[in-house]
Design brief:
The complex is a heterodimer. Chain A is mainly α. In chain A, helix 4 crosses helix 7. Chain A is elongated, with a radius of gyration of 21 Å. In chain B, the strands form 3 sheets. Chain B has a 6-stranded mixed β-sheet. Chain B has a 4-stranded antiparallel β-sheet with strand order 2-1-4-5. The termini of chain B are far apart. Chains A and B meet through helix 8 and helix 9 of A and helix 2 and strand 6 of B.
Chain lengths: 226, 348
């Protein structure tokens, strides 16, 4: 087995510790920025939904500001965002490089995207449910948690899967700030040193990670669809 | 129980203002079943939402159970809403919760223990006749069953009022009947005041005590259902009533020149309408014997509204000219509306 692998992917086998470290860095970035983005995106998505014209906590000013901010960050290419938010990174994380330095830009990249996912998931909800809850004397907070979020678990899970995959995508660019990860690994060795097997194996690993994410997401969707 | 005075509601969209409800005043008594009928867009759904303030009227006063709804704080309003149940055309059940979960929804924070909530939910489900469906999800239920769940949910906080917004409009006629019977039963056993919004006169005829007819945001006619059916004043009311009766088909038959309405000389077609509550005599039989005439009934449509027969008969009368005249006079004297639709006596 060992010999077989040495034959077909010699460069990967020669750099196994680096390769494992790259996988670890990628997962670290996805998990950390994913968790933070999930909380922030969910909050923003809910806020935008309830402050919308006709929403249960209609508020033109809050809605306009949040909506425009999300649009602004959605329109900045990630590669530019990476360098643009460096000062913020330094202020929050103490550094703008390595994995720690990549978390802030990744969050800035994923939150607006996830916010829109949440917003569209909540928009799918039948408005009649909110009206029924209001007629039963529910508070706005109850409606948010017991109607909007509770009834949209499947739709939000779908949005979460899509966001996680696109986040995985973004981590590939984090090499720019020296964060390492699989993308950086493939570029440095696979492309720069023309080690084709490195690129191939990297792609394979990414495909496996995406499959796991989709599988997990699908499970949650299925469990919450009646 | 419910007092609406001078309610108006305007919706502004861009430069256009829609007057959904215009200066409506209504009083709905405790324990009655009150119908509001109108075509879609008449403003009836908006008006009913002004009762629990899902829509805030632009002007006017709303009093429910002695409380001036518009003066309540947000918190007080939520408390007041718990005592006003509401059901909807599309049921609005929460798909991710079971039937029991849906009915338990409004009971959270009511001070009842988990055990008490479970017992109350089961009691409510038994009351609406679906005690065996507690663990089903809404998707697995038929329309009628879904509406029963919605009714149980609306009753969870023991409301004094039940608002029904087109509650039977998405149901087939048989299921509609069953749901109406359930509402009537709840009204009689719980003494709950029921407000029914509908575009079907059959619904009003079936269970309402009083009715308001709405058109273009205004109440054009209102009163006891029997009186409205017997003596409709407005054209729209007459239109609604005709939808529940086939007595108007005679005009179509005459227009089509159907063989059913071919008259021999000396015969005539009349429409007899029973417009008083006291029609209990066998009138057709009596006049035919008393005046020696023959009544050939083409249509007859008698419904029992508020425990009194209402409706009428379309018949071809043949006999001696003088006898027919006397028979008609006798019927009029007995408070039967007589309308001659086609007359073949003149051709004699």
């Amino acid at each position: 087995m060992q010999e077989f692998l040495n034959n077909i992917i010699p460069n990967v086998m020669a750099k196994l510790p680096d390769f494992y470290a790259a996988i670890g860095d990628t997962l670290l970035m996805v998990v950390w920025s994913g968790a933070i983005s999930f909380v922030l995106g969910l909050t923003l998505g809910v806020l935008i939904t309830v402050t919308k014209p006709g929403g249960i906590l209609e508020n033109k000013i809050v809605y306009q500001i949040l909506d425009k901010l999300v649009s602004l960050f959605r329109s900045i290419p990630f590669i530019i965002l990476l360098t643009w938010v460096m000062p913020v990174s330094r202020a929050i994380m103490g550094t703008a490089i390595y994995v720690r330095g990549a978390i802030v830009p990744l969050v800035f990249g994923a939150v607006p995207f996830f916010t829109r996912q949440v917003e569209s998931a909540l928009a799918e909800l039948d408005g009649g449910l909110v009206e029924a809850a209001l007629s039963m004397g529910s508070t706005p907070l109850e409606i948010i948690f017991r109607v909007y979020l509770k009834e949209s678990v499947a739709a939000i899970a779908r949005g979460t899967t899509i966001t996680a995959i696109s986040l995985l995508n973004l981590t590939a660019m984090a090499g720019v700030v020296g964060a390492g990860g699989l993308g950086d690994f493939a570029i440095r060795y696979g492309h720069d040193r023309n080690m084709l097997d490195v690129t191939n194996v990297t792609v394979l690993v990414l495909v496996i990670i995406v499959c796991i994410m989709e599988f997990a997401g699908g499970k949650v969707v299925k469990k919450n669809t009646h | 129980m419910i007092e609406l005075s001078h309610i108006s509601k305007e919706f502004v969209s861009g430069k256009r203002t829609v007057h959904a409800v215009q200066d409506v005043s209504l009083t709905i008594d405790k324990g009655e079943i009150f119908g509001m009928i109108g075509f879609s867009g008449a403003g009836k759904s908006t008006l009913v939402r002004c009762i629990n303030l899902l829509e805030r009227p632009t002007s006017g006063k709303v009093i429910v159970d002695g409380q001036d709804m518009l003066s309540l704080s947000a918190k007080e309003l939520r408390q007041a809403r718990k005592k006003i149940g509401m059901i909807f055309q599309h049921f609005n059940l929460m798909p991710s919760r079971t039937v029991a979960g849906n009915v338990a929804y409004p009971l959270r924070g009511s001070g009842l223990s988990k055990q008490q909530i479970a017992e109350k939910v089961q009691r409510l489900l038994d009351l609406v006749g679906i005690g065996d469906k507690a663990e089903a999800y809404p998707k697995q239920l038929s329309g009628g069953q879904k509406q029963r769940v919605a009714i149980a949910r609306a009753l969870a906080n023991d409301p004094n009022v039940l608002l029904c917004d087109e509650a039977t409009s998405a149901l087939d006629p048989q299921t509609t009947k069953a749901i109406l019977q359930l509402l009537k039963h709840l009204n009689e056993t719980l003494g709950i005041t029921v407000v029914i919004i509908t575009h079907e006169m059959a619904v009003v005829k079936e269970i309402c005590h009083r009715v308001a007819v709405m058109e273009h945001g205004k109440v054009v006619e209102s009163g006891e259902v029997f009186n409205i059916f017997a003596n409709p004043r407005e054209d729209i009311t007459k239109n609604f009533i005709h939808t529940t009766s086939n007595l108007r088909k005679i005009e179509e038959l005459i227009a089509e020149d159907s063989p059913v309405v071919k008259l021999n000389p000396g015969e005539l077609i009349v429409r007899l309408s029973y417009i008083q509550r006291n029609v209990s005599e066998p009138l057709i039989s009596t006049v035919s014997r008393k005046f020696d005439i023959v009544l050939n009934i083409i249509f007859s449509d008698i419904a029992i509204v508020q425990d009194a027969p209402i409706g009428g008969t379309v018949a071809i009368i043949s006999g001696e000219r003088e006898q027919i005249t006397q028979a008609i006079a006798y019927l009029i004297e007995k408070n039967v509306g007589v309308e001659v639709i086609k007359d073949a006596r003149v051709s004699e």
